[in-house]
Specification:
Two copies of one chain form a homodimer. In chain A, 64% of the residues lie in helices and 11% in strands. With 132 residues, the first copy, chain A, is mainly alpha-helical. Chain A has a three-stranded antiparallel sheet. Chain A is globular. Chains A and B meet through α1, α2, α3, α4 and α5 of A and α1, α2, α3, α4 and α5 of B. Chain A binds a DNA duplex (30 and 30 nucleotides) through α4.
DNA sequence: TGCCATACTTACCCGTTGGAAAGTGAAGGA
DNA sequence: TCCTTCACTTTCCAACGGGTAAGTATGGCA
């Protein structure tokens, strides 16, 4: 048997742990598959309507699309413009904050593009080492 | 009623969709809470043993720690060194690939730190607008 | 003969995630 | 009168995530 199965966080005397926790929470929110993709799509295409945004995101359900986009609106990443017409017309675009976030993630996207093959190779090698 | 509830991906004639899908898959894998945190911890502290890594990650369970770290090893982000002694001694450190990934995410972390308060304000404003 | 440490693995279990599908509302067209 | 459009909302349900707890292996030490 064993005493601890989940490691409790260390206490750093010099670091504000409230800010730390918030940053981690924000990272958790922001580092979400659909949030990332929608960020990308809106950065590339500018203002988009709901359905078009869903098409460009690819494979997202209506439920997740509204949910993600609403969350991003709350966090201040997108502006949602409702045109009071029928049938409804709602448009989404990035705020300045959302744009800077997209830019911050840009490096990660390019990293991913540049290193996909290296990752694939690493996986193959690992599987060969451990499968047999 | 309605025909489509999940939007199918668009076909871009000029873009290799296989690479696209892979990149998205890699992003999904990499943009995981624990992966991100472990990347951070290993970048800051260098080589670490299992238990110490867990303590520094903060709040992670043994199961998730092994799982995450094994996945990162498979993807080629960390090197796992087993010292054949008893009790076991296993050390983890970033590979060059892992280090470049950590650097790529560095921008996002600093962005998060810099913008936590703006996000909080945006949330408050949103909630005030929509709660009442 | 136990007990300890370390790095796991396995089984169980519950809460969350997220897709499928159907419902809503309001106006204009057939 | 009913259908259509668009942007949702809601309900149902299956899959997954991830925590807790317990088990494993091995040699040294008391």
């Amino acid at each position: 048997m064993q005493k601890a199965k989940t490691y409790s966080p260390e206490v750093y005397p010099a670091v504000d742990s409230r800010v730390e926790a918030l940053v981690v929470e924000v990272m958790g929110r922001v580092a979400d598959k659909w949030t990332l993709i929608i960020l990308e799509v809106l950065e590339k295409h500018g203002e988009l309507r709901f359905t078009r945004l869903g098409e460009l995101a690819g494979g997202i359900s209506q439920k997740m699309l509204t949910q993600t986009v609403r969350q991003m609106e709350r966090d201040g990443f997108v502006i949602r413009t409702v045109h009071p017409v029928i049938p409804p017309r709602v448009e989404y675009k990035l705020t300045d904050l959302g744009l800077t976030l997209a830019e911050a993630f840009c490096g990660v996207w390019t990293w991913a593009e540049a290193n996909v093959t290296r990752i694939e190779k690493a996986r193959d090698a690992f599987d060969r080492r451990n499968k047999i």
